[in-house]
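Morning!

This is the sequence you dropped in the shared folder:
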Amino acid sequence: MIDKINSLQLQGESELVAAKSPAQVEIWRTKYLGTNGELKALMSLLKDAPRDQKPELGKRLNELKLQLEASFESQKNLLGTAPIGPSIDVTEPGVTLGEGRRHILSRTIDEIIDVFGQMGFAVADGPEVEDEWHNFTALNIPEGHPARDATDNFYMGEQSGVKRLLRTQTSTVQIRAMETQPLPLKVVAVGRVYRPDTHDATHFSMFHQIEGLCVDRNLSLVDLKTALLQFAHAYFGKDAEVRMRPSFFPFTEPSAEVDMKMHIRGQWQWVEIGGCGMVDPNVFAAVGIDPEEWRGYAFGLGIERIAMRRYGISDIRWLFENDARFLRQF
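The structure's back. Tokens below.
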């Protein structure tokens, strides 16, 4: 055991003197003084030494440890500290880091919700995978209606005898809100909807809508247009205008297309952004609301259409391609 201690001392001192760089000195430290180094391995043999020799051997090992540590510190100070990583010229200009930001659609949704929130609308939510009753029947779209055709919907098969599909409109949340919340009611619902459209500059198979619903006594089209006008002024500016053109939707009567005048590329233009109307009495009846006592208005606006018109985006597909060059513009 003494011979091994003396041999380790001679070998260690010899290799340390031969180390000519801070990096080599660090390698020596790991080899001899590290957790799994030569000195640690030699100390582990102490337990097998004869009992009467252990005090002397333990003392000699401690002396060897102190000698090797002192020699290491001396050589390290002589050669200096090893550089950590590549040398850096602190006088060079720094690299500018790009700022992170939310997707333009996410920011548009938050802005719209904030405007309607200030108008007293609460936020409602509903599932994207719907049943036919919520997506069609309760919205006054009867069986056999062309809107139910398999070529116009993403059907997902049956579960417990109930046909499921990806919702085609956020109007389904109107039904769920009227089923579960007390009246009067004033909510908006934002979410993804799905239709098997061919992708082009203005169509995509998945897009976003914001649905508004207000149910109270003595509501009229005046209240509906006022709500839309207030939103337009708050979101697009005090010069924004709203117009309603007669149309038809199964779940509202009367119904109208909603156009808003937006400032696009230096001029004001009329842009169609969705539909609206007074809630059809059949929709109230489907959820157990008395249409003689309650009245309601509803509107559905396309989020992508609003974002595209407001920011001058000419192709809806750009919103979903995640091209950082495009997204950094907003």
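Headline: The mean pLDDT is 88.

More detail when I'm at my desk.
O.
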